[in-house]
Design goal:
The protein has helices spanning 15-27, 47-57, 73-79, 92-108, 128-136, 147-157, and strands spanning 3-8, 30-36, 64-69, 84-89, 113-118. It is of the alpha/beta class. The chain is globular. The N and C termini lie far apart (44 Å). It binds adenosine-5'-diphosphate. Residues 8-10, 14, 16-17, 20, 38, 41, 87-88, 90, 94, 119, 123, 126-128 line the site of adenosine-5'-diphosphate. Residues 8-10, 14, 16-17, 20, 38, 41, 87-88, 90, 94, 119, 123, 126-128 line the site of adenosine-5'-diphosphate (ADP).
């Protein structure tokens, strides 16, 4: 069984993430979408809210699971016997960040491959922070995120 981990902050999950999850689920027997802690990001949604969104938004994929790990993703990957860590690439600035991350992961465990999937063209501008800004500026974000994200935003503003 070839297992891969797709880690991220998912604050909130977007259709860009879903696209990567869908493609990864065809490449691997099992994909674990891992809510990971990024110390550089202050999150709008709590861990529980993001887990709920991830579970609802990925329920259509039979071989996709959701989990949370507060430590290093590469250590989680080793613990569960994963062969790869999936990341998505949109623009050159993503590459710079991912390059450093991948070097650090390689230092910790050379046995787990980093697999990079290029964002589809129409998804390159979608980021969690852009979604948040658009939503709070009154733009209709429904074509860009799973339905549960809009429900969560509405619940939050009540
Ligand atoms: P992190 O805080 O770990 O960067 P994110 O939730 O922002 O977490 O992103 C998780 C992964 O998904 C990253 O590899 C990011 O580059 C990728 N990603 C985010 N948005 C998109 C998108 N629109 N298309 C493809 N990949 C994306």
């Amino acid at each position: 069984m070839r297992k891969a981990i797709y880690p991220g902050s998912f604050d909130p999950i977007t259709n860009g993430h879903i696209d990567i999850i869908s493609r990864a689920s065809k490449l691997f027997d099992e994909v674990i979408v891992l809510l990971a802690v990024n110390p550089n990001k202050e999150c709008r949604f709590s861990v529980d809210e993001r887990i709920e969104m991830l579970k609802k938004a990925t329920s259509q994929f039979d071989n996709v699971k959701v989990d949370f790990y507060p430590g290093l993703t590469i250590q989680y990957a080793r613990n569960v016997g994963a062969v790869a860590l999936i990341r998505g690439l949109r623009v050159v600035s993503d590459f710079e960040y991912e390059w450093t991350l991948s070097a650090a992961n390689e230092f910790i465990d050379k046995g787990i491959e980093m697999v990079f999937l290029m964002a589809h063209h129409e998804m390159t501008f979608i980021s969690s922070s852009a979604i948040d800004e658009l939503y709070h500026s009154g733009v209709d974000i429904s074509p860009l995120v799973p339905k549960v994200v809009i429900e969560m935003y509405k619940k939050k503003s009540k």
